[in-house]
Design goal:
single chain; alpha+beta; nine-stranded mixed sheet; 6 helices; disordered C terminus; transferase; acyltransferase activity, transferring groups other than amino-acyl groups; GNAT_dom; Acyl_CoA_acyltransferase; GNAT family N-acetyltransferase
Length: about 200
Protein backbone atom coordinates (compact mmCIF):
# COMPACT_ATOMS: atom_id res chain seq x y z
CA UNK A 1 0.00 0.00 0.00
CA UNK A 2 1.40 3.42 -0.99
CA UNK A 3 0.15 6.98 -0.61
CA UNK A 4 0.17 10.07 -2.81
CA UNK A 5 3.28 11.84 -1.52
CA UNK A 6 2.18 15.20 -2.93
CA UNK A 7 -0.57 15.47 -0.31
CA UNK A 8 1.89 16.26 2.49
CA UNK A 9 4.50 18.91 3.34
CA UNK A 10 7.99 17.88 2.11
CA UNK A 11 10.98 17.73 4.47
CA UNK A 12 14.57 16.53 4.27
CA UNK A 13 15.93 14.78 7.38
CA UNK A 14 19.46 15.06 8.71
CA UNK A 15 20.77 12.17 6.58
CA UNK A 16 19.28 13.58 3.38
CA UNK A 17 16.20 11.34 3.45
CA UNK A 18 13.02 12.80 1.98
CA UNK A 19 9.59 12.55 3.65
CA UNK A 20 6.16 14.14 3.29
CA UNK A 21 4.23 14.80 6.51
CA UNK A 22 0.46 15.33 6.76
CA UNK A 23 -2.50 14.64 9.06
CA UNK A 24 -3.68 11.02 9.20
CA UNK A 25 -7.00 10.28 7.48
CA UNK A 26 -9.45 7.32 7.55
CA UNK A 27 -8.26 6.19 4.11
CA UNK A 28 -4.79 5.61 5.60
CA UNK A 29 -5.94 2.34 7.21
CA UNK A 30 -3.95 0.10 4.84
CA UNK A 31 -0.93 2.41 5.04
CA UNK A 32 -0.96 2.25 8.85
CA UNK A 33 -1.31 -1.54 8.87
CA UNK A 34 1.61 -1.85 6.45
CA UNK A 35 3.77 0.36 8.63
CA UNK A 36 2.91 -1.67 11.73
CA UNK A 37 3.82 -4.89 9.90
CA UNK A 38 7.29 -3.46 9.22
CA UNK A 39 8.00 -2.74 12.89
CA UNK A 40 10.26 -5.16 14.71
CA UNK A 41 8.92 -7.02 17.74
CA UNK A 42 11.00 -4.72 19.96
CA UNK A 43 9.49 -1.57 18.42
CA UNK A 44 5.99 -2.97 18.84
CA UNK A 45 6.64 -3.68 22.50
CA UNK A 46 8.04 -0.18 22.95
CA UNK A 47 4.85 1.34 21.51
CA UNK A 48 2.16 -0.94 22.98
CA UNK A 49 4.03 -2.49 25.97
CA UNK A 50 2.81 -5.98 24.98
CA UNK A 51 3.63 -8.59 22.36
CA UNK A 52 1.45 -7.61 19.41
CA UNK A 53 1.48 -9.37 16.04
CA UNK A 54 -1.10 -7.23 14.26
CA UNK A 55 -3.62 -4.44 14.71
CA UNK A 56 -7.29 -5.34 14.83
CA UNK A 57 -9.76 -3.63 12.50
CA UNK A 58 -11.15 -1.72 15.47
CA UNK A 59 -7.67 -0.51 16.46
CA UNK A 60 -6.87 0.61 12.91
CA UNK A 61 -10.19 2.42 12.73
CA UNK A 62 -9.49 4.21 16.02
CA UNK A 63 -5.96 5.17 14.96
CA UNK A 64 -7.03 6.61 11.60
CA UNK A 65 -10.43 8.15 12.39
CA UNK A 66 -9.17 11.18 14.30
CA UNK A 67 -11.02 14.47 14.85
CA UNK A 68 -7.83 16.62 14.61
CA UNK A 69 -8.71 18.44 17.84
CA UNK A 70 -9.01 16.07 20.79
CA UNK A 71 -7.26 13.32 18.86
CA UNK A 72 -4.60 14.35 16.35
CA UNK A 73 -2.18 12.25 14.34
CA UNK A 74 0.51 13.21 11.83
CA UNK A 75 1.97 10.64 9.45
CA UNK A 76 5.23 10.64 7.49
CA UNK A 77 5.41 9.06 4.04
CA UNK A 78 8.66 8.12 2.28
CA UNK A 79 9.63 8.91 -1.30
CA UNK A 80 8.14 5.58 -2.44
CA UNK A 81 4.79 6.37 -0.78
CA UNK A 82 5.06 4.06 2.24
CA UNK A 83 4.26 5.08 5.80
CA UNK A 84 7.40 5.48 7.91
CA UNK A 85 6.25 7.26 11.09
CA UNK A 86 3.30 8.55 13.10
CA UNK A 87 2.99 10.97 16.01
CA UNK A 88 -0.32 11.39 17.82
CA UNK A 89 -1.86 12.94 20.87
CA UNK A 90 -5.12 12.15 22.66
CA UNK A 91 -6.54 14.84 24.94
CA UNK A 92 -7.16 13.82 28.54
CA UNK A 93 -10.74 13.20 29.65
CA UNK A 94 -10.30 14.84 33.03
CA UNK A 95 -7.85 17.57 31.98
CA UNK A 96 -8.53 19.26 28.66
CA UNK A 97 -5.18 21.09 28.77
CA UNK A 98 -3.24 17.81 28.84
CA UNK A 99 -2.80 15.12 26.19
CA UNK A 100 -0.96 11.82 26.01
CA UNK A 101 1.56 11.72 23.18
CA UNK A 102 3.14 8.82 21.32
CA UNK A 103 5.63 8.68 18.44
CA UNK A 104 6.33 5.59 16.34
CA UNK A 105 8.94 5.35 13.57
CA UNK A 106 9.53 2.30 11.36
CA UNK A 107 12.85 0.71 12.35
CA UNK A 108 14.83 1.43 9.20
CA UNK A 109 13.90 5.11 9.58
CA UNK A 110 14.92 5.44 13.21
CA UNK A 111 17.93 7.61 14.06
CA UNK A 112 17.34 10.12 11.25
CA UNK A 113 15.50 12.79 13.23
CA UNK A 114 12.04 11.86 11.97
CA UNK A 115 10.61 11.28 15.43
CA UNK A 116 11.77 14.70 16.58
CA UNK A 117 10.31 16.42 13.54
CA UNK A 118 6.94 14.72 13.98
CA UNK A 119 6.89 15.65 17.66
CA UNK A 120 7.72 19.29 16.92
CA UNK A 121 4.95 19.60 14.33
CA UNK A 122 2.47 17.84 16.59
CA UNK A 123 3.36 20.18 19.47
CA UNK A 124 2.39 23.20 17.40
CA UNK A 125 -0.98 21.69 16.54
CA UNK A 126 -1.61 20.74 20.16
CA UNK A 127 -0.86 24.22 21.43
CA UNK A 128 -3.23 25.68 18.83
CA UNK A 129 -5.92 23.33 20.18
CA UNK A 130 -5.47 24.65 23.73
CA UNK A 131 -3.21 21.88 25.03
CA UNK A 132 -0.45 23.14 27.31
CA UNK A 133 1.38 19.92 28.14
CA UNK A 134 1.96 16.41 26.88
CA UNK A 135 2.30 13.30 28.99
CA UNK A 136 4.29 10.35 27.71
CA UNK A 137 4.93 6.84 28.98
CA UNK A 138 7.96 4.93 27.74
CA UNK A 139 9.79 1.74 28.60
CA UNK A 140 12.63 2.28 31.05
CA UNK A 141 15.08 0.65 28.61
CA UNK A 142 13.95 2.70 25.58
CA UNK A 143 16.92 5.06 25.42
CA UNK A 144 15.97 6.65 22.09
CA UNK A 145 12.47 7.52 23.27
CA UNK A 146 13.72 8.96 26.55
CA UNK A 147 16.32 11.06 24.72
CA UNK A 148 13.68 12.47 22.37
CA UNK A 149 11.38 13.34 25.28
CA UNK A 150 14.14 15.02 27.30
CA UNK A 151 15.31 17.09 24.33
CA UNK A 152 11.70 18.22 23.88
CA UNK A 153 11.73 19.52 27.46
CA UNK A 154 10.20 16.48 29.12
CA UNK A 155 10.50 16.02 32.87
CA UNK A 156 10.19 12.60 34.47
CA UNK A 157 7.30 12.52 36.92
CA UNK A 158 7.44 8.82 37.80
CA UNK A 159 9.81 6.01 37.04
CA UNK A 160 9.64 2.98 39.27
CA UNK A 161 9.58 -0.28 37.38
CA UNK A 162 9.60 -1.01 33.64
CA UNK A 163 7.72 2.14 32.55
CA UNK A 164 8.63 5.78 33.06
CA UNK A 165 6.20 8.69 32.77
CA UNK A 166 7.16 12.15 31.56
CA UNK A 167 5.47 15.52 31.25
CA UNK A 168 6.37 17.88 28.39
CA UNK A 169 5.29 21.54 28.78
CA UNK A 170 4.17 23.08 25.50
CA UNK A 171 5.33 26.62 26.10
CA UNK A 172 6.36 28.86 23.19
CA UNK A 173 9.88 29.21 24.57
CA UNK A 174 10.21 25.45 24.90
CA UNK A 175 8.90 24.94 21.39
CA UNK A 176 11.48 27.42 20.06
CA UNK A 177 14.19 25.49 21.87
CA UNK A 178 13.01 22.28 20.28
CA UNK A 179 13.00 23.92 16.86
CA UNK A 180 16.59 25.04 17.32
CA UNK A 181 17.60 21.52 18.33
CA UNK A 182 15.92 20.12 15.24
CA UNK A 183 17.95 22.34 12.90
CA UNK A 184 20.69 19.71 13.10
CA UNK A 185 18.17 17.03 12.18
CA UNK A 186 16.36 18.30 9.11
CA UNK A 187 15.43 21.23 6.91
CA UNK A 188 12.17 22.02 5.25
CA UNK A 189 12.61 21.64 1.51
CA UNK A 190 11.34 25.10 0.61
CA UNK A 191 13.40 26.76 3.34
CA UNK A 192 15.94 29.40 2.17
CA UNK A 193 18.59 27.23 3.84
CA UNK A 194 17.65 24.25 1.70
CA UNK A 195 19.98 22.70 -0.84
CA UNK A 196 19.24 24.15 -4.29
CA UNK A 197 19.36 20.64 -5.72
CA UNK A 198 16.73 19.42 -3.24
CA UNK A 199 14.01 22.03 -3.70
CA UNK A 200 10.52 20.77 -4.50
CA UNK A 201 9.01 17.34 -4.88
CA UNK A 202 11.01 14.25 -5.88
CA UNK A 203 10.80 13.12 -9.47
Amino acid sequence: MTADIRQGEPYILRDGSWVAIRPVRPEDAALLSDGFARLTARSRRSRFFVEKLRLSEAEVRYLTNVDHHDHEALGAVSRDGRGVGVARYVRGRDDSASAEVAVTVVDEWQGRGLGGKLLALLSGRARAAGITRFTAVTAADNTASKTLIVHAGGLRVSGRGPHWEYEIPLEPLRDEGLTAWLRDFEIRIDSPAGNANSVGWPR
